[in-house]
Amino acid sequence: MKKVFLAYALFASLAALPVKATQFWYDVITNYPGGCISTNSGGLWFAHPPGVLTATDMLIVTNSYTSGAAASGKMLRVNGLNSEYIMRLFDPIATNSTMGGMVYASFIANASYVPRGGQGTYFAAFNDVIPSNPPDGTSATNGFDFRGRVFQIGNTNAYPFTNAVNLSYRFGVANAAGDPAQGGGSSILYVPMDLIKSVDYQVVLKYDIDNAIAYLWVNPASENDTANWSGGTSDIGAAANGLAGLLFRQRTGGGTVDIRDVAVGTSFADVMTNAPGAVLVATNYNAVSTYSGNPALLEVFATSIGGGPLSYQWYQVSGGTTNPVAGATSQTYLVSSVSGVDAGNYFCAVTNSAGFGALSVADFQISVNTASTAPFFATSPPTTAQGTVSGTLSLACDAQGTGPLSYRWSYNGSPLVDGAPVTSNPGDLSVVSGSQTPTLIVTGLSTNETGNYTVTVNGGVAPSASATTAATVTPAKAVSIAYIRSLEDTSTWQVTDTTSIFAISNAVVTMYTNVTSGTTASYYIQDATGGLDLFVTGDASFRPTMGDIVNVSGTLSSYNNAIELLINSSNPYQYYHIVGHTNVLPAPFVYSLDMNSNPGNMETNIEGRICMLTNVGFDGALTTPAGNGSLYVTNSTGRLQIYFPGGTDPDIRSQTIPSRFAYSISGVMAQFKSGAYNNTSYELYVTRIGDIVTTPPPQVPVTAAVLGNDVTLSWPAVPYTPDTRGAYAYTVWSAAELSGPFLPLATGLTFNTVNGVYTDANAMLGTQRFYRISSP
After folding, report:
1. What is the SS3 assignment for 530-569?
2. pLDDT, tens digit, for every residue of 120-163?
3. What domains lie within the chain, and their CATH numbers?
4. pTM assigned to the model
C-alpha cells in the first residue's frame, strides 16, 4: 500500500485545551512507558478478568505512523490476537456507578491490522461494576454489562467488487450485541465512512443510559454531524448496575487498534474539544486494469479530526489535461462500464466542513484494454475439492475479457440458485450462495453434494469459458479423543482441522456442573484415550451429570488454547446424546507440578483429563471465590492455579477450605490463556469442594497372593465416583527387612474401583520382601 501524506499540520490536540467541569478524565496514554498498561499506569487502568485473565498483553507500544501520531510515538495497542481487557473507572476514588443520563467517550484510533471482510469484534465499551465487589485497581471484579460496544469490522468487497476497496474497514456500534460471527451483526450500526489502516481517526461514543441507546461518530465537528454518525442502536435492556467505566477489550478474531487521547465525560463538549482541523489524505491509491465493458472502482481515504463531514471531487488527468469528473463527488469513484475514454490518471480533492482542503496525488489509474476478447480464466477453480458433512464448500475463480462478464454455476448440469439447496433430494439442507459470482459457497453440506460443479462465464464477446470441479463430501469421522489431540500443530499447539465433523462415542462427563451459562453448555468429557471440552450452543436444557456417558459429534475449536468439540444444536449433522451413566469415573492421573515444562506430553496426554495433585499447600486465601476465580497451590516441584467456576457452580462457591495443606486435589487439567502457547497457562479445574482432601487418608491394610513367581498385592482403595468425592493416590513400598529401609516400588497409583492392586513380577526369585502401602 502506498501512502502520500500532505504537508498540513493538525490543529492542537485535546491535551492543550482546558478540561471541562463535568469531564470525568482525559488520558493521553502517550505519557506511559512501554510495556503492560496495568503495571505502568499508576493504578488508573486495571485488568478486567473475566475469570482469571490478566492484562499482561495489553501493551503500550511505539508506532511509526505519521498520520498525526502522538508526539511520544506511543499508543495503547488493543490487539486482536490476545484476550485481555483493561478498564478505567469514571471515578477511581468512589467507584460509583452512573445510573442515568448520558455518558460520552472519545479516543484517537489507528488500525494497524484490519480483519477480513465481514469479520471483527468489539474492542471498546462502557462497563459496570458489581456492587458487592467494586474494583479498587488491584483486586477488581467488574461486571459484564458491556454497553455501547464499538466494533472494527472489515469491509466486505462483494462481486462485482464495486462497493469497497479491499482491506478497508468501518467502525460500528451496538448497545450490547455480539459480533457478526455470534449473530449480532444485524444490531450493529456503522458510521458510513470507509477507513484504512495506519490513519488516525477520532471515535466518539455516546450512551443514553435511561433508554439503553448507543451512538457513534467518526471525526465529528459537533454532535449534530449526522453525516458521519451511526444513528442510535438498541438491542437489549439497560445495564443492571449502571455504568462505571470505559473498557478496552482484546479478543481473538478482531482487528488491532492503537489508541491515544482518551476522554470520558457527561457531554459531547467534554470529550470532543478539537477545533476543526486540516484535512490529511492517506492515499491508498488503487490502479484498475480491465477490459472495456467491465466496472472500475477508485477510493480515496482522508481524515480530518474535528473537521466534520468531508466533501469530495474527483479529477481525471488524460492527454495532458485535467478535468473534474461530473458527478464524482463521493469517497468512491465508480465507472460501471469502462471504455477508452475512462483511461487515465485520477486524483481527488477533499474538503472538510470548515473549508480546509487537501489533494491526493494523481496515482489513481484506470487502464482499459479495448481489444475484443472472449472470456478466459486468469485463475481457474480447482479440478477437485473435498468437503465434510455440515461443512462449507467454497469454489473460486477469476475471469477476464471484454465485458460485461457474467458467471453461472451449475451442479451436475443443473443451474444452482442462491438460497436453495444444491439438490432436490429429501432432507438436503445445503444452502447455495454466489451462484452468479466468481465464488460459489455451499453451506450445510451432506453427502448429497458430492458431484461436479461447473462455472460458465459469458462476456461481451463469444465464446464463453467454463471449468468443472469434482467435489467429494465425506461423512463424520468416528475417532477417539487421542486422535483429535494428534491433529494439533506441534509448533503452535492449535488444532489443524476446524471444518471436519468428528464423532466420539461412550465418553464420560467428568465435571460436576455446567461451567458456562445461558443457552450454552460446557463440560469436559473423557474416553479411554484422553479428554477435551464439550461445548454446546443453543440449548439451555442440556445439563448432564458427572458420570453420564455421551455420544457427541461436532467440529473442533480452541478457546484459551484448550481444545473444544464445538456443537451447534441447530446443526442437524452435529449431535449430543446421553446414552447411559456410570458410577465409575476415570481414575485420576497423578500430576506433578513441574510437568508443564513438556508441552508435547501436556497437550497429547494430560490436558483435558482428570488429574490429581498430592501433598500441596494453598499459598493464599482459604475461601473459594464467590464468582469465577482462582486460588494457588505449591509444593517442592512448583506452583499451579486452581480454578473454581463459582459463577455457575454453587458446590464450590464461597466455601471454606479447612486446612492450608491438602493431601490431594482432583479436577480437570485445562488452559486459560489464548494466543501463543504458554506453559504457565495450565490450571486444575475443580467443580466439587469434596475433591479437595484435607483430612488424612484412611489406613491401607494390604494382602498378598503368590502366583508362580509373582506377588500380587491388593488393598481396599477409595473409589473415585460421581458419588464419592475426593480421590487418593497410593505408593507401594518394599524392604528386605521389616525394620526397613522401605523403598518405593511404584508411586502415583490411582483406582476408580474399590480395590487397589499391584503385581511385583518375579518377586519370589529374590530374597524375602516386606511390603506396605501408603497414601499418597
Report:
1. EEEEEEEECCCCCCCCCCEEEEEEEEEEEECCEEEEEEEC
2. 999 999 998 876 554 444 444 567 789 999 999 999 888 888 88
3. 25-271 (2.60.120.200), 280-369 (2.60.40.10), 376-471 (2.60.40.10), 477-581 (2.40.50.140), 589-693 (2.40.50.140), 703-774 (2.60.40.10)
4. 0.71
